[in-house]
Write a structure and sequence with these properties.
By secondary structure, the protein is of the alpha+beta class. It is built from 18 helices and ten strands. The chain has a domain of 147 residues: 2-Layer Sandwich (Uridine Diphospho-n-acetylenolpyruvylglucosamine Reductase, domain 2), CATH 3.30.43.20. The model has no long low-confidence stretch (mean pLDDT 90). The structure holds protoporphyrin IX containing FE.
């Protein structure tokens, strides 16, 4: 498949060719990512080129078969760093480039082997205890609130869970402070890429300072883990990890992986929680059935990972939310050499997008694809190329089980204690990263089961049939 013998000519590939060219297309894409992708798929089919006919800069590859061709062939379709450029010889560069997502081949395999044990079932059981405590703590804080922004609160809880389970930090002050530093650093990456000038008061200068602080902090935590043989957090497990041939992660690699695990893990999970709460709010019958299922399982006593892992409706609700509004709605690779997609040769260095958003809504795979139907998951097992909220292939999310357990724990505690009513007529519009760009305002009251669906405005109405 990935050699170019007997391939069809590239000129056969269709796509929009606006007067102002490729940039105009990308502008449409970033402005209305979902509408734009739907138009491409409906008008041009599963393989679409943007740019000139002979040298497209970008290809969109839609549907399960193309997902397979792109994601399962990492030697041809590589991870791309084109969007972010950080000088490698800075502390920030060391933190950013030492990560699984950007590694390839043997090095990637070796690092995954070292990291994977931190995400095995027995480890997650340990982390789940922190997840439960921190969610209950958030519920207690909510006692003094009536209005919240659901997305901001979900970010708060996933950030706390990430810092605690990754680094074992116990002090409340540290939990929020470290989370905040990491968030500030990731937010500044665009400016760092655009203006890499180290002059006081520039975003680059500030980002370097924050990276330095974080680096010092994570290194001090690494030293601490070496003196705590029984610590049960991810960093402790990474410090202890070694390969069959004795290979271990260097301190620089440990810092990079800790940073990436935090970045890759907390915002995606926060957005998944936000949309699941939203979809339940818009489907009161499902919410009512879910609370009944949760009550039945948790009756007296507390939530535990064992109890909530056995609940079919909770599982279906989360899978359906990740299908309809996937936090990683699109993935990207770049062609390492000229290679084929559907028998057409794509030149080297072309950006190739594959789309969870489009795949998850193909009517031949999912009946009534724009509706929220958790019950479809009771007897439905799509292939990994048909349902891929955590991607698939060698770079599949290493934290997928961690995320599923976290989603289940946070939802089962919050929903039993509070009724979260999204504000009537609020403007709810997700961006490409599935973040609600205007937030998600809501009123919270103690759970009284008086569920009502309030209509909302915004582009969410184009994405879900209520
Ligand atoms: C709902 C939550 C999450 C979603 C939707 C999600 C989604 C994804 C996706 C789609 C990828 C692959 C990207 C690609 O193929 O281009 C990925 C990779 C990754 N994720 Fe997640 N993720 C989530 C939570 C987490 C958590 C909680 C962690 C860690 C604690 C994590 C750590 C990672 C890492 C390290 C990779 C890179 C794996 C590699 O390249 O080998 N993710 N994630």
């Amino acid at each position: 498949m990935n050699n170019n013998k007997g391939a069809s000519p590239l000129a056969e590939l269709q796509g929009p060719r606006p007067a102002l060219g490729w940039r105009m297309n990308m502008l449409h894409f970033f402005r209305s990512p979902f509408r734009f992708q739907r138009q491409l798929y409906e008008q041009y089919g599963d393989l679409v080129s943007l740019g000139t006919t002979d040298k497209p800069k970008t290809i969109f590859a839609f549907g399960p078969e193309l997902n397979r061709q792109v994601v399962a062939n990492p030697d041809y379709f590589e991870m791309s760093t084109a969007l972010v450029k950080i000088p490698k010889d800075t502390v920030m560069g060391q933190m950013f480039y030492n990560n699984l997502i950007l590694m390839a081949g043997e090095k990637h395999k070796q690092h995954r082997r070292l990291i994977q044990p931190s995400f095995h079932h027995e480890q997650i059981v340990q982390y789940s205890k922190d997840m439960i405590l921190l969610t209950e703590q958030l519920c207690d804080e909510w006692q003094h609130k009536q209005e919240i922004d659901v997305n901001a609160e979900m970010k708060k809880i996933t950030q706390r869970i990430a810092v605690k389970t990754l680094m074992g930090t116990y002090k409340d002050k540290d939990l929020d402070q470290i989370g905040e530093l990491i968030s500030q650093l990731t937010k500044s990456l665009l400016w760092v890429t655009l203006t890499p000038v180290d002059i006081p008061y520039t975003p680059y200068h500030r980002a370097l300072r924050i990276a330095g602080q974080l680096n010092d902090y994570i290194r001090s935590m690494i030293d601490q883990k070496r003196t705590e043989p029984h610590a049960a957090d991810v960093l402790a497990s990474l410090v202890k990890a070694h390969d069959e041939d004795g290979a271990k992660l260097s301190d620089e690699e440990l810092v990079g992986h800790t940073f990436t695990l935090f970045v890759a893990g907390h915002e995606t999970t926060a957005n998944a929680l936000t949309w699941t709460i939203f979809l339940l709010n818009q489907h009161p019958n499902v919410l009512s059935n879910l609370i009944e299922e949760l009550d039945g399982a948790v009756q007296q006593g507390t939530v535990s990972m064992d109890k909530i892992n056995k609940l079919p409706l909770l599982e279906g609700v989360i899978k359906e939310s990740l299908r309809l509004l996937p936090p990683a709605s699109i993935g990207t690779r770049v062609t390492a050499v000229p290679c084929e997609l559907n028998g057409i040769t794509i030149p080297a260095s072309t950006n190739v997008f594959f789309s969870q958003f489009i795949t998850h809504r193909i009517p031949e795979l999912y009946s009534e694809p724009n509706r929220f139907k958790p019950e479809r998951w009771l007897d439905f097992k799509p292939s990994p190329f048909e349902y891929l909220p955590f991607s698939t292939g060698p770079h599949m999310c290493v934290g997928w089980y961690f995320a599923m357990v976290e989603l289940k724990i946070v939802l089962s505690i919050l929903l039993r204690r509070y009724r979260i009513g999204i504000t009537r007529n609020a403007k709810i519009s997700p961006n490409l990263m599935m973040r609600p760009v205007h937030g998600m305002p809501a009123r919270i009251v103690k759970q009284d089961r008086a569920f009502v669906r309030e209509p909302v405005r915004g582009t969410i109405n184009e994405l879900v049939d209520f």
